[in-house]
Amino acid sequence: MKFKIFTLLFCSVFAFGQDIQNNPKSNHGNKFELLGTILPTPNFYRTASGAPGQGYWQNRADYDITAYLDEDKRNLRGSETITYYNNSPDDLEYLWLQLDENEHSSVKDAGFDDGSKLPKMIPSDRLKSTELPVKDNGYGVNLEKVRDVSGMPLQFVVNKTMMRIDLPKVLKKGEKFTFKIDWNYNISNRMVMGGRGGYENFPEDGNDLYTITQWYPRMCVYSDFKGWQNNQFTGRGEFALVFGDFKVSMNVPADHIVAGTGVVKNYDQVLTSAQLNRWKQAQTSNEPIEIVTLDEAKKAEKTHSKERKIWKFEADNVRDFAWTSSRKFIWDGMKVIIPENKNEVMAMSLYPKEAYNLYRKFSTRAVAHTIKTYSEYTIPYPYPVAQSIEAANGMEYPMICFNYGRTEKDGTYSEGIKNGMIGVIIHEVGHNFFPMIINSDERQWSWMDEGLNTFVEYLTEERWDNKFPSRRGPAHTIVDYMKLPKEQLEPIMTNSENIIQFGPNAYSKPATGLNILRETIMGRELFDKAFKTYAKRWAFKHPEPADFFRTMNDASAENLDWFWRGWFYGIDPVDISIDNVTVSSPDLDAVPKSKEVSYTVEKPLQNEFTDISKFRNKEDKNITFYTDKDKETQDFYWRYDRGMEKVDQAKIYTLKNDNLENVPVKDKANLQKINAYQIDFSNKGGLVMPIILEFTFEDGSKLTDKSSAQIWRKNEQKVSKTYYFDKKLKSIQLDPMKETADIDTSNNFWGEIAEPTSKFEVFKQKQAGSARGAANGKVNPMQASGKKN
Predict the structure, then answer these.
(1) I want to staple 748 with a disulfide (CB 3.0 to 4.6 A). Which of 18, 133, 216, 734 is the partner?
(2) Quick one: where's region Disordered (predicted)?
(3) Residue 119: what pLDDT?
(4) What angle, rounded to 10 degrees, do the helices at 447-464 and 545-554 form?
(5) CA distance 348 to 262
(6) Distance between CA atoms of 30 and 562, rounded to whole angstroms?
(7) Whether 673 contacts 10, CB under 8 Å
(8) Which residues, including other chains, have CB under 8 Å from residue 530's CB and lie 6 or more apart?
């Protein structure tokens, strides 16, 4: 052991700052300057630290709603009483509400057209849906009555998807106003017309599955940073909503099973005695219990009852309410305890028989895994229920979400379908945190809910399965988007309605950026503390981008403005190039002080590419994965060529010494072996990043070194770095773990690069790449749903 340490002593690396004489005067830009006036000025409501200020306020709305589902006419009738609380310092002369169902109307929609080109083939159903709207197609909200609590009519104006109520008198600070609205609308076939809510028809058994979303007139947000958020709803930019308490009653066919936001208050009136007993059993079970069984659902499909039942729900401190109804549903549930707050949650799933073999095995377990994992990275899950509904789409609401995941007709499924289903469940359940609790303005900034949620989704998928084929999060998966021509790109900080590449821009790029911050720039400890601080500060509040950026800086003591500027406000990619390596023998009398370095001997990574997060998660003994027992017992496919292979932990030796002159005299002869290497880099892409190098020596040993992104602060285009070794280098590799989303790896090498040892090894590498591509590209549930990329 002494011999190894002695040898390593003279393998110390010396890193020097850039030679000032070689620094051109004109290459200092603004990449490392503060964001300054790009961000809104801190004030009494929102502080410079990113926290809510002393004067922070937000308004509130409570709802009492009754609904009647007419299955024969596919029509929904509703009546609501809204109590709106003005906590703002402003006098309000009118209120704005959202009429989202007008999206489907040919005469009431927002009218945001996109250009189009003549296709080679036009499906008949598509042709029908694009006929010129010469008349009202019968969809959209029909307002029957708008009145105050005394029954007096209120003046109102409908502008497309927005409704203004003119108040009879000014609503002052601290006052509340209660009013009533009666309305109805024809429920659209969402499989044909698109959108988030509607019905899906199953012609084999003649039944419908209803997802009732954006279904009631909802209050707009009035805030300190925007005033009324009454941007029109075009179908893309999602929702800005206020918190409040809900009481909702649904009158549905007696053989329907209903699930919704919140808790049911009258299970004893709507369930059979057997189902009620199973419900009570599920409340204490650590395994999913079928509350409505497969046999019961198959039997109900044939009944088409004309009787009615009323389901009563309550939900406290939520921003929205959604529900689903069908006689096709199987329903299972189990108890989950959130360790951080000891909250007991009912994790549940509802699904038709077409999804049984997948959802029965995985859905409720994925729900439980998601709320527990998100609770670790953000805030403890506060609600009593979390539900996943199979409805051939993907969309989220408080305590309930709609996902896809059906088997083949014979009940079989592929690994790709299974992973796609688990991924979308994690994503949509995760939206309970972003934006249902950390309640950002989705209508303006899609990335604040989709991007942040996709990032934590990636962490959660990793905890489910270290080999999970995540499409968004690892740095290397964003490269194809980042290398597009600049005319096809726009900054993350772009309004939802104007984004061209919506999936990469709103989901992938922000998620990848946060992963790079966590793994490569800040480190997990600093990042996780700052991210949890943001979640805690803005839980049940309305954060804006500046609040996120400032909190991450404030809680970490890292000035990340250079990163926010480049990654969120810019479109430059990462492309750092090794331009030249100069080898020489230095003057040994001038050897300066060393810095702390790490000498790393690693086991070669094998088979498919393992990104930095997967690698570190395997080494982290504090991380618990979804249990292998569950995988083995529930999933036949897991036993095929799987398992968490054991990777030997890298041996790391750290050397700290003040000066090589302190080396014993008998060892100074080794200094004669020193070789000096000056490595010249250029920033071809424009986006600055840390410089991560892996050195391979002629004796086969390896050394890694990382310089922070601040190495570019005095010259954003070119920089040089000098190293001294007592061994000869065989090769240098830049960004060996693909941590920085470098779009061109052809300029990331110097020297001899090891080739695969045989044609068979080359074949295996190609096959692994093809398999990853199929797993990442075969299933795209968001596109299948018509909702999101």
Answers:
(1) 734
(2) 767-789
(3) 77
(4) 50
(5) 12
(6) 9
(7) yes
(8) 522, 551, 552, 554, 555, 556
Which residues of the chain register pLDDT less than 50? 1-26, 590-607, 640-666, 756-760, 762, 764-766, 768-789
φ, ψ (nearest 5 deg) of residue 761: -65, -40
Containing 724, the helix (H) or strand (E) segment is strand 718-725
Q: What single DSSP character describes residue 677? A: E
Tell me the residue length of the chain.
789
User: pTM for this one?
Assistant: 0.85
Beta bridge partners of 81: 64, 180
Residue 227's nearest CA partner among 120, 135, 95 is 95
The tokens 């937000």 sit on which residue? Answer: 58
- Contact of 747 with 687, CB cutoff 8 Å: no
- Inter-residue long-range contacts of 70-74, CB under 8 Å, 24+ positions, other chains counted: 71/208, 71/252, 71/253, 73/186, 74/186, 74/187, 74/199, 74/208
CA 80 – CA 179 distance, rounded (Å): 8
Q: What is the pLDDT of residue 624?
A: 73
Structure tokens at 343: 């909250």
Residues near 410 by beta carbon (within 8 Å), at least 6 away in sequence: none
Give the neighbor-by-neighbor strand order of the sheet with 155-159.
155-159, 162-171, 92-98, 218-219
**70 and 184 Cβ atoms separated by less than 8 Å:** no
CA distance 666 to 720: 34
Instruction: Please check whether residue 749 is in contact with residue 732, taking contact to mean a CB–CB distance below 8 angstroms.
Output: yes
The distance from CA 523 to its chain's CA centroid, rounded to whole angstroms, is 20
Listed residue (215, 331, 348) closest to 270, CA to CA: 331
Distances (CA, A) of 338 to 70, 87, 318, 369, 734: 39, 32, 19, 10, 42
CA distances (Å), 731 to each of 51, 232, 677, 750, in order? 48, 57, 11, 5
CA distance 716 to 580: 17
3-state helix, strand, coil in the chain (%, to 5): 30, 25, 45
Residue type, 443: R
**Residue 76 in contact with residue 212, Cβ under 8 Å?**
yes
Could you give phi then psi for residue 290, rounded to 5 degrees? Answer: -75, 115
At 681, which amino acid appears? F
DSSP secondary structure code for residue 393 in this structure: S
For residues 356-374, one letter each, b for 16 or more C-beta atoms within 10 angstroms of the residue's C-beta and e for the rest, the string is: bbbbbbbbbbbbbbbbbbb
| Whole-number Å distance between alpha carbons of 227 and 404 | 37
pLDDT given for residue 621 in this prediction: 76
Say which DSSP state 351 is in: E
Asked whether 403 and 558 are in contact (CB, 8 A), the reply is no
Q: Are 145 and 37 in contact (CB under 8 A)?
A: no
Is 131 exposed, middle or buried (CB count within 10 Å of its CB: 0-12, 13-18, 19+)? exposed
Q: Which residues contact residue 198 at a Cβ distance below 8 angstroms, ignoring those fewer than 6 apart? A: 187, 188, 189, 190, 191, 210, 211
Q: Which two tokens stand for residue 197?
A: 């809510």
Q: Which of 554, 575, 536 is nearest to 681 (CA)?
A: 575
Single-letter amino acid code for the residue at 763: F
User: For residue 115, what are the contacts with CB-CB under 8 A and spacing of at least 6?
Assistant: none
Helices vs strands, H then E, count in the chain:
19, 32
Cα separation of 764 and 558, whole Å?
42
Q: Which residue bears the tokens 């790490």? A: 598
Write down the pLDDT at residue 153.
98
What tokens appear for 242 in the block?
């206020």
Residue type, 585: S
Residue with tokens 């609600």: 383
pLDDT of residue 370: 98
- Which one, of 10, 12, 11, 20, lies nearest residue 720 by Cα? 20
Cβ atoms 366, 428 nearer than 8 A: no
What is the per-residue DSSP string for 401-413?
A: EEE-----TTS--
Structure tokens at 704: 């890694």
